[in-house]
Automatic annotation (TrEMBL):
SUPFAM superfamilies: GHMP Kinase, C-terminal domain, Ribosomal protein S5 domain 2-like. GO terms for molecular function: ATP binding; carboxy-lyase activity. This is Diphosphomevalonate decarboxylase. It comes from Polaribacter aestuariivivens. InterPro entries: GHMP_kinase_C_sf (IPR036554), Mev_decarb (IPR005935), MVD-like_N (IPR053859), Mvd1_C (IPR041431), Ribosomal_Su5_D2-typ_SF (IPR020568), Ribsml_uS5_D2-typ_fold_subgr (IPR014721).
Amino acid sequence: MNTTQFIPKSALKSIEKATFTWQTPSNIALVKYWGKSNPQIPKNASISFTLNNCHTITTIEFEKKKASENVDFNLFFEGKQKDEFKPKIAEFFKRVANYCPYIFEYKMTINSENSFPHSSGIASSASGLSAIAMCLMSLENELSSGLSSEFINKKASFLARLGSGSASRSVEGPLVVWGNHPEIEGSSDLFGVKFPHKVHPVFENYQDAILLVDKGEKQVSSTVGHNLMTNHPYAENRFVQANNHLGKLSKILQNGDVKSFVNLVESEALTLHAMMMTSNPYFILMKPNTLEIINKIWSYRKENDSNICFTLDAGANVHVLYPFSEKEAVNQFIKSELSNYCQKKQYIYDSAGFGAKQL
Ligand code: PMV
């Protein structure tokens, strides 16, 4: 795999000080990534909707200093110094150092905030790491003699992936594929690419309401979960199934077959959790209210001839997906019924969005 394209070749300019701010989104996978090999290479291709409202805003101030062996940075989250978040970011810098050698020549002050509540069970690693990756690419763009926006997005996704696989899908939107797939032109294990085909209007501005069922700390980290796919009895079949699902979903997104979308997306969500339940050690991330909500969604769909469906991340929260045309009716259903199963009745209305924005 050609990773040398991401190592800066030409001599870089010298800049004393620079500050960049990026807003980058979270995403929700429709075909899930679960299982990887080193370094962050997915066992199957995945596709996600980029979100619009759930995002991270990160500012990095770069100040030139004498080059050192260690990366020098300070981290503030919502205005407060957060040393407990530093090891994860330090590990990220270590992984990208070969591709961003200039980070050793700057003192970095990172200020970050999320649009969604802290510890809401919404993973912030995708939006958080893609935001840092975009800030690094803004610096690299200034240090180099101009980079194309295509290269900036590609490399930002490549860098974000090294921090957290799903972060590679948080640079562009509204649909991003990560992982090499024969039916998706340009797809790669190294970075996410925009879904390359014209999408049927029914999937435009698709709605995603995130129901906050359990805001506690995850019992099992995604790193541990991915590793449990090694020697998992169903892993090989699962990877084949996921790639088949992506081929099918590609056609569905183009032809507008919403019924098949519902079937495939829910099957993906339950398969992800089935993999968790059938690994060893086994674990369950769903909560009783996750199942209550799923059953309510199924009843509503039947009674109203609706196209509402759900998907799940690696947690108990439920993502409710529905076409824009059903927004009013489903939002009412969420407010009056489903919110009763959420912690403190909390939920977030979101929809498919267009990716990273420089502020
Ligand atoms: O990016 P990671 O390592 O946190 O893994 C994310 C895995 C899932 O969210 C469960 C699925 C996905 O494709 O986003």
